[in-house]
Amino acid sequence: MSGTVVVGTQWGDEGKGKITDLLARDADVVVRYQGGHNAGHTLVVEGETFALQLVPSGVLYPHVTPVIGNGVVVDPRVLIAELDMLTAKGVDCSRLVVSGNAHLIMPYHQQLDALHERHLGKAKLGTTKRGIGPAYADKAMRTGLRVQDLLDPPIFREKLEMALEHTNQVLTRVFNRLPVEVDAVIDEYLGTCAPRLAPHIGDSVDVVHAALEADREVLFEGAQATFLDLDQGTYPFVTSSNPVAGGACTGAGVGPRHIDRVIGIAKAYVTRVGSGPFPTELFDEVGDHLVDVGHEYGTNTGRRRRTGWFDAVMLRHAVRVNSLTEVAITKLDVLDALPRLRVCVAYEHEGRRYEHVPYHQSVMHHATPVYADLEGWQCDLTGVTDPADLPAAAAAYLDFLEDQIGVPVRLVGVGPGRAQILHRT
Questions:
Q1: pLDDT by residue (tens digit) across 295-310?
Q2: Is there a contact between 402 and 376 (Cβ–Cβ < 8 Å)?
Q3: How crowded is the C-beta side of 241, counted as CA atoms within 13 Å?
Q4: Taking Cα atoms as reference points, which of 366, 350, 358 lies closest to residue 278?
Q5: d(Cα 122, Cα 401) in Å, to the nearest integer?
């Protein structure tokens, strides 16, 4: 049996979808284990772009069984639209399995998400307003509806009515909004969504373990990233689930002994969306350059991403909390035109030096980065197909990152295409 976890090591948008797509060639099952449609994977295959939100990247391979695990929150309307998009592009989605234990995002979750964010004002978290947080909150409160409830109309109605007793009080009395009508939700979810999704709903734990017990390859795909993790990230500017490698265990129903490889994905620089600390953030023309050349706008939201230099302090922490066995560096080519590169090797705050992420959020918010300067290569990497052909400065940059984080850099992205990945030994 062999399980591999792919996990983001920064604040998301590192290119996990592309690396997962690469690894899926040798996988039999690809499992999405947490998050919702607030995270997107963009894949470029033979010149065609696929923007995925919920369906695992492995769906593009006919031999792969794609699985949406129990740790995911699912908006059935979004999932159906994504399946329709893939089908229209000639992708067979019949193999998709959606865990019956995954929780549903309901229309009122999105409404509450937007209202809560507006209520926070200047202290807003930067949520995508997709209903992710409220859905996970209802899950924790044990008032959520699950995917399997779509198959049992009486239970669905009973659970929905119970959930709306509280939710409608909040909507009407706190936010002065109209109550959600039970029958309207039932018409949409049971009348429209349930028939479409019923063929895909199943026992995801059984699918995963049957593959593992048959010595087949299982790939676990996380959304968001380490520093957006509810427990390990820059709280409260985080997501509502656990993207770290350990989240694959709870989100897919496997134990740690089933995972023998953990690949951390990192950009050759750093980006984040929304609010929160960002020690290496750039506010100059270099930051604008990274946005323009790297096309740093959200796949789902279109929001401009904040950009900054590579942060080795963050990566050391990601190595620890994920037990990374190796790292993939993406978008190295975005740095092609820069004559000088900087890497943050430590933080300083009130006279103290930090080589690992400080536990106290106030230190993280006010930390000053300590940089090492490296030479740029100032040539086009997009045509490089062999790591031996990288210019000396590019190879030195990768070697420096590897030395700083303490694990090997095995994969390097030098362009958006499926084939533009270098394999280092």
A1: 998 766 678 999 999 9
A2: no
A3: 36
A4: 366
A5: 36
